[in-house]
Amino acid sequence: MIARPLYLAPMEDVTDPAFRMLCKRFGADRVYTEFVNADALVRDVASTTRKLQISDLERPVAIQIYGKDAASMADAAQIVEQAKPDFIDINFGCPVKKVAGKGAGAGLLRDVPKMLEITKAVVNAVHTPVTAKTRLGWNDEQKIIVDLAEALQDCGITELAIHGRTRAQMYTGEADWTLIGDVKRNPRMHIPIIGNGDVTTPERAKECFNNYGVDAIMIGRATFGCPWIFEDIKHYLVTEELLPKRSMSWCVEILKEHVERSIEWIGDERKGIVHSRRHFANSPVFKGLYDFKQTRIALLRADTKEEVFSIMDEIVRHWGDPCEKTAGQ
Asked: Of 105, 114, 129, 166, most Cβ neighbours within 10 A?
């Protein structure tokens, strides 16, 4: 196993092939697809089956599925297996109402017997290693992860990723890694434990590995508009030194490449640009720039590649530092 591996977390409308390939290039040791609705997959909904597209260049890659019915989840897992992922991951952590409110994702934290039934059904339906991702519990009064982790392990999963929040927290507050550490230190646990939540800097990644003993770290929102975060963290874990700050012009070129990849993958210029906007909005490249509001609005409203790239070039000319040295890829 790779020493202190870093994984790209599965995120809806984010971890498409275009973004996964960029993160892989910058050192992600494993990438995950967007989550796939089991019922829609069984019904052969085109927009859902399209999410099964993976490339050998991004391996190891996991395809994540979610649902609330054991039979349909098992059927979906068998369909997923035909795409030949390295892992099939079960989503028991999504907190959004349209998923958890319907009894899937983190909603299953309120029905552990059904969660375990689904896990056993998926494990028994396929030959591909099955992993799972969940949260600490439903709310602060029901942090069940230590016992739940054992139960999921007994169902046959090969790894468990834990987001250090409850479903009630959604994505607010701070991730609590204490219970993740408790799971890892449990002598009855023998499968790898992956920690997730608020790892946004190389220093924090090192703290999480050292303090909680996790086998891997999964990075989510900190990758938005910043696929090079994997390279930054890996360099620090090895050398305990931060890479030199990258120039704005270098970063913008990577963002442009992402736009190009998104357009190519979706097959439509405007849709590809819209799909990339989450990264423009959250990229650290543009944070803290003085009097940037109107330019940011213009960037997020642009719907042609020529317009987007023109605005990005103007940003570099106006706010970029020509004396800043570019870090290598």
From this structure: 105
pTM of the entire predicted model: 0.94
- For the stretch 86-134, pLDDT in tens is 999 999 999 999 999 999 999 999 999 999 999 999 999 999 999 999 9
Residue among 198, 200, 139 nearest 164 (CA): 198
Cα dihedral 2, 233, 86, 78 in deg (nearest 10): 140
Give dist(CA 90, CA 92) in Å, integer.
6
One-letter amino acid identity for 51? K
155 is catalytic: no
The backbone torsions φ and ψ at residue 263, rounded to the nearest 5 degrees and listed phi first, read -60, -45
Residues 23, 94, 155, 251: which is the catalytic one? 94
Residues ≥6 apart with Cβ < 8 Å to 218: 6, 7, 8, 9, 133, 161, 194, 195, 196, 199
Nearest 10 degrees: CA dihedral of 197, 201, 206, 209? 10
Which of the 8 DSSP states describes residue 264? H
